[in-house]
Amino acid sequence: MSELIPVVEEERVKYRIEGEFCANCSAKMERKLSSTEGMGKTTINYATKIIFLPPSRVAQAQDIIESIEAGVKLVPISMKQKVATSDITVDVNKENKWRLTKIILACTLFAVGLLFESRWKNSSWVVFEYLVYLTAYFIVGYKVLVKAGRNIFRGQFFDENFLMSLATIGAIAINALPEAVAVMLFYSVGEYLEERAVNRSRNSIQALLNFRPEFANLIHELEVIKVDPEEVQVGQQILVRPGEKVPLDGEIVNGSSFVDTAALTGESVPRKVQVGNTILAGMINTTGVLTMRVTKVLAESSMQKILDLVENASTHKATTEKFITTFARYYTPAVVVAALGIALIPPLLGVGNFQDWLYRALTILVISCPCALVISVPLGYFGGIGGASRHGILIKGANYLEALTEISTVVFDKTGTLTEGVFQVVEITPAKGYTERELLEIAARAEAHSPHPIAKSIREKYGKDVKVSDLTGLLSYEEVSGQGIRAHLNGKTVLVGKAGLLEQSGIFLPRLALDRGLGTVVYISVDGDYAGQLTISDRVKSDSRVAIDRLNQMGIRTVMLTGDNQAVAKAVAEELALSEYHSDLMPEDKVSWLEKLSQTKLQGKVAFVGDGLNDAPVLTRADVGIAMGGLGSDAAIEAADVVIMEDQPSKILDAIHIARYTKKLIWQNIGVALGVKLVFILLAVFGLANMWMAIFADEGVALLAILNAMRVRWYHSPQRSLPEATTLSQGLKAAIH
């Protein structure tokens, strides 16, 4: 029996679509590519003209795309092609200048035609009338007519080129020459202005992506060589001078400075760095000279992951975007059929003359193009994602941006999310036969290998750098997930962790020991006997209270899930005014509680906020997983749907506000576009609107929708005053006294 070989999906490669195509054509390309066997689900980022395709299907994809819009080409992109962006910009500028020249020339001829309008009535001037108007018409309409003719042969009737061509040729046929030229001229002007507006939006996003450094100062023997960041390998050292961008992720080995992290976090206050600190690509060195050892190649750097995340966000479409794309497919054919009925049915019934009703039908065709709808929605979501990125909030797709607007419950992890994760040993309680110093040394040596912040606080309190080379008495070491440490030290079995760890081993804990202190309690046993306990306190983040207060005011339920004991959880919950909390939870318990909260929610979605290091299962399970402090955390960027780059819970509010603001702008565009089109269709039916008005309505609404969608770029977070930081022990002691 032959074994079944699993089908491995081919890795996709990034391509740029070069050439002119509209938003409606982009939607057609997506549908055709996605429905092609072997191509898989494919999306096009219209704002950046980026598409991801399987390399083996590129030739087929090129044929499909060119069948929809002739002249467009697929060009592969690599990080080394970043310089080519300027060449593309130059080509676009040249094309725009040529388009503007043709528009000005056509406008001049059109003005001449209108100036001599009275003379055209003389039959001897008819030839000149047609010569002037048709010359202006073909100058701006030639490409539209060619595209329409090509698409007709391909069976594609319902696009803007066909509609504009049909409407204007019909106008020429009934001798409405000024209207025909005006429609084609204003359509070209509208397309030109739309392209400029989209390019401006595209450039604003490109500016966000352009903080990719162009060079690195590689230290080679006694020389400093300027090289491409892609050529630098892990372990090599580079020099970063004041004013230069940090080209790669690494660790500082010499020097100290202040670095500007605004490109990564949105924060304008420089951060001090020194020997031993991690520094990331995209930061800007502002003062001192830094020597750093590279820890990641460019392709794996945090900066590159952020850039890929922003560029790839269009692959996750929002429900609204999918709805509008589907709606546009049926809207245009429906309007064309309605226009055909208006042109034929009334004259057949003897109501009015055929030429009058044909003119009304042609006017309806002019305003039936769906571009205003199709372009404004994805551009709005892309602008929202870009705007959030400038505030240090990474959103992985339009669907997550939309989900943020529907959040009814926010669930927080405690340590590292609401609190700083900066632990301090505040109380040492040894059992009989042990001194405080002996108890602390036992715990520090047992926790020597643990990376947990609590273990680090114990080692710091011990006051010695406990290294593996010093642990001559440590025979074995085992981490019990979610419980603590089991170690063999100097021939004795040592347990350090939660009460449950000791109780499972049959160790009796005195009642006084179970009267838990004002922080996290670490219990210690030696050879089956209780040896004492350490009480460790964590500090609440300075703006956690602001974030919780604002969420409560918005009517959003706030919940905390923590592995800490009841006393600590209660103290934090009361200090922050959380709606509810659940303590003594294992990692798997958090998933269970999240599922319960999701099932019992009345409406809306549930978001989970964690530090991204050990909360991956819960982040994945939530409707929206939000990772805090993603700066340099690969786990955060991989696991979460939304990544807050700074350790500021209040930025969750910014994420929600940006999402709501973006959705408001999008629905404004949809409402205005549909409303204006419906009004002018009705006016045209009753003969109250002409082609001039129709083309102004169509192109004006499209341009207005684009400009409105771009407003999200100027979102500013509301000013918030931050309370002073407090520790749990300080808050509780103040309450007691």
TrEMBL record:
<protein>
    <recommendedName>
        <fullName>Cd(2+)-exporting ATPase</fullName>
        <ecNumber>7.2.2.21</ecNumber>
    </recommendedName>
</protein>
<dbReference type="InterPro" id="IPR036412">
    <property type="entry name" value="HAD-like_sf"/>
</dbReference>
<dbReference type="InterPro" id="IPR059000">
    <property type="entry name" value="ATPase_P-type_domA"/>
</dbReference>
<keyword id="KW-0472">Membrane</keyword>
<dbReference type="InterPro" id="IPR036163">
    <property type="entry name" value="HMA_dom_sf"/>
</dbReference>
<keyword id="KW-0067">ATP-binding</keyword>
<keyword id="KW-1278">Translocase</keyword>
<comment type="similarity">
    <text>Belongs to the cation transport ATPase (P-type) (TC 3.A.3) family. Type IB subfamily.</text>
</comment>
<feature type="transmembrane region" description="Helical">
    <location>
        <begin position="357"/>
        <end position="382"/>
    </location>
</feature>
<dbReference type="InterPro" id="IPR023298">
    <property type="entry name" value="ATPase_P-typ_TM_dom_sf"/>
</dbReference>
<feature type="transmembrane region" description="Helical">
    <location>
        <begin position="330"/>
        <end position="351"/>
    </location>
</feature>
<dbReference type="GO" id="GO:0005524">
    <property type="term" value="F:ATP binding"/>
</dbReference>
<keyword id="KW-1003">Cell membrane</keyword>
<keyword id="KW-0812">Transmembrane</keyword>
<dbReference type="InterPro" id="IPR008250">
    <property type="entry name" value="ATPase_P-typ_transduc_dom_A_sf"/>
</dbReference>
<feature type="transmembrane region" description="Helical">
    <location>
        <begin position="692"/>
        <end position="710"/>
    </location>
</feature>
<dbReference type="GO" id="GO:0005886">
    <property type="term" value="C:plasma membrane"/>
</dbReference>
<dbReference type="Pfam" id="PF00702">
    <property type="entry name" value="Hydrolase"/>
</dbReference>
<dbReference type="InterPro" id="IPR027256">
    <property type="entry name" value="P-typ_ATPase_IB"/>
</dbReference>
<dbReference type="Pfam" id="PF00122">
    <property type="entry name" value="E1-E2_ATPase"/>
</dbReference>
<dbReference type="InterPro" id="IPR051014">
    <property type="entry name" value="Cation_Transport_ATPase_IB"/>
</dbReference>
<dbReference type="InterPro" id="IPR023214">
    <property type="entry name" value="HAD_sf"/>
</dbReference>
<dbReference type="InterPro" id="IPR001757">
    <property type="entry name" value="P_typ_ATPase"/>
</dbReference>
<dbReference type="GO" id="GO:0016887">
    <property type="term" value="F:ATP hydrolysis activity"/>
</dbReference>
<feature type="transmembrane region" description="Helical">
    <location>
        <begin position="98"/>
        <end position="116"/>
    </location>
</feature>
<keyword id="KW-0479">Metal-binding</keyword>
<feature type="transmembrane region" description="Helical">
    <location>
        <begin position="665"/>
        <end position="686"/>
    </location>
</feature>
<feature type="transmembrane region" description="Helical">
    <location>
        <begin position="123"/>
        <end position="142"/>
    </location>
</feature>
<keyword id="KW-0104">Cadmium</keyword>
<keyword id="KW-0547">Nucleotide-binding</keyword>
<dbReference type="GO" id="GO:0046872">
    <property type="term" value="F:metal ion binding"/>
</dbReference>
<dbReference type="InterPro" id="IPR018303">
    <property type="entry name" value="ATPase_P-typ_P_site"/>
</dbReference>
<dbReference type="InterPro" id="IPR023299">
    <property type="entry name" value="ATPase_P-typ_cyto_dom_N"/>
</dbReference>
<dbReference type="GO" id="GO:0008551">
    <property type="term" value="F:P-type cadmium transporter activity"/>
</dbReference>
<keyword id="KW-1133">Transmembrane helix</keyword>
<keyword id="KW-0378">Hydrolase</keyword>
<feature type="domain" description="P-type ATPase A">
    <location>
        <begin position="212"/>
        <end position="311"/>
    </location>
</feature>
<dbReference type="InterPro" id="IPR006121">
    <property type="entry name" value="HMA_dom"/>
</dbReference>
<dbReference type="InterPro" id="IPR044492">
    <property type="entry name" value="P_typ_ATPase_HD_dom"/>
</dbReference>
